[in-house]
Write a structure and sequence with these properties.
By secondary structure, the protein is of the alpha/beta class. It has 12 helices and 17 strands. A 6-stranded parallel β-sheet has the order 9-10-11-12-13-14. A 4-stranded mixed β-sheet has the order 3-2-1-4. Strands 5-15-16-17 form a 4-stranded antiparallel β-sheet, with helices on one face.
């Protein structure tokens, strides 16, 4: 084809769910051809030890900007994303101030993000009590769906929905067929559990029992079944919920589910007391639970893997599980973390790509992301799967250098990330803001 801007030649690439050789032709930031013999003035040829992957999509990132920019920010978050092979993120409506629960807040977030994004960025809206009855306005403005909590979110400006309010929100979202994301833990069970304090991880784990997740997910499934609305369960930690999720899917409930690299990488038995860099909600559970989550991915019950990148300043990670901020910073290392655990369990890079790229893109409705295909954006990653590194949190692009992965040996290294046919170098902010329906 004439007038190509870029040709990419890879002896190994993940295309249509399989590994094969591939030559891509790019024009105006879009993949326009896939065939041997393509030529252009600019050619990227991968080395023998490299494999071409589509750019990853991380649909669960807390950028915290504006308002808590000391925790993270669009410049640092999107640089970290690019360094980890993520070319599209969707920002959560909290913990920014204001939260993205109305049109003024969405516009402020767009103004803040616009000049400083190094990858493409979309936004989730928030479903809180004060936004009920006005969700469709945000949906029309292009948010990709709505995030809700069934218990205290941890920040006062983003209150939880009661079960009745959650059901009302689903009824409201059914008309425009908008997606509802839900942090599913039961508030009453957690309120009745022993409250955590001190350095013991076991005490923290007991404060967020599996039964809280299971009870909440049962309620979410029943509400989705009754209303016919689309619902997505966030950061599944308890594998005991997998049978009821599988049954709901077989029954035709419009339900999708994610888990996170930290639930697939770590286990409660290995977390030292006082190591609050591992604190997240729901919590990291047992080694047996971890293996059951991997089985949920293998069986297709879990649809995707996303970071739930939720950073905070180092002073909020005090060595007391009751007082420390709950959240794990993993945006930059997700691909390597998943590959490190997936390969010895017999999974392929094609599996990882489906979980980390194609799956989140499908759930968010990003039709031109997460795949190497004609008509898709020319977002791709040059990955060395047999290379390795030890994570040094001080070298991560995250604003705060606190990470559960610090000192951990990970397989696979991202060598280059390309966004719409241009290498992401961290020197110019070439990302764009996405709206539902654009891509």
């Amino acid at each position: 084809m004439a007038d190509l801007d870029l040709v990419v030649r890879a002896r190994r690439a993940i295309v249509d769910g399989v590994e094969r050789d591939c030559t891509l032709g790019v024009r105006d930031g879009v993949i326009v051809a896939m065939s041997a013999g393509l030529t252009a003035d600019s050619v990227l040829e991968l080395a023998n030890d490299e494999i071409l992957l589509p750019g990853l999509v991380d649909s669960h990132v807390h950028v915290n900007d504006p308002g808590r920019t000391s925790w993270e920010g669009f410049a640092t978050a999107t640089r970290a994303a690019a360094a980890g092979g993520v070319t599209t993120i969707i920002d959560m409506p909290l913990n920014s101030i204001p939260p993205t629960v109305d049109m003024p807040a969405l516009k402020e977030k767009q103004r803040t993000a616009g000049p400083q994004v190094y990858v493409d960025v979309g936004f989730w809206g928030g479903a809180v009590p004060s936004s009920l009855g006005r969700l469709e306005e945000l949906h029309r403005a292009g948010v990709f769906g709505f995030k809700s909590f069934l218990l205290d979110s941890g920040v006062e400006e983003f209150p939880a929905l009661t079960p009745a309010q959650f059901a009302a929100a689903l009824e409201e979202l059914r008309g425009p067929d908008a997606l509802m994301l839900v942090h599913a833990e039961d508030s009453e069970i957690i309120a009745s559990a022993r409250q955590p304090s001190g350095a013991r991880y076991d005490d923290f784990l007991a404060s967020r029992p599996e039964s809280a997740e299971i009870m909440a997910i049962e309620g979410v499934i029943e509400a989705a079944r009754r209303t016919g609305a689309r619902v997505h369960v966030l950061h599944l930690a308890s594998a005991s919920a997998l049978p009821l999720i599988a049954e709901a899917k077989r029954d035709g409930v419009r339900l999708t589910v994610e888990t996170c690299p930290h639930y697939l990488s770590f286990c409660a038995e290995e977390i030292p007391d006082g190591a609050t860099r591992y604190k997240c909600c729901p919590p990291i559970r047992s080694a047996m639970n971890r293996e059951m989550l991997w089985r949920g991915l293998a069986d297709g019950v879990i649809d995707c893997v996303v970071s739930d990148h939720s950073p905070a300043t180092a002073d909020l990670k005090v060595p007391d599980f009751g007082a420390a901020w709950g959240g794990i910073s993993g945006l930059q290392v997700g691909l390597s973390a998943v590959w490190t655990q997936a390969r010895p369990r017999g999974f392929s890079l094609a599996d990882a790509v489906d979980w980390l790229a194609a799956g989140p893109a499908r759930i968010a409705g990003l039709q031109r992301k997460g795949r190497l295909a004609i008509g898709c954006d020319a977002d791709f990653v040059v990955f060395a799967p047999d290379d390795a590194r030890v994570v040094d949190a001080r070298q991560l692009h995250h604003r705060n250098k606190v990470s559960a992965y610090d000192g951990r040996a990970l397989a696979g290294v991202v060598r280059q990330t390309w966004l719409r046919g241009r290498a992401v170098t961290g020197e110019s902010a070439d990302g764009i803001l996405l709206a539902r329906g654009d891509r």
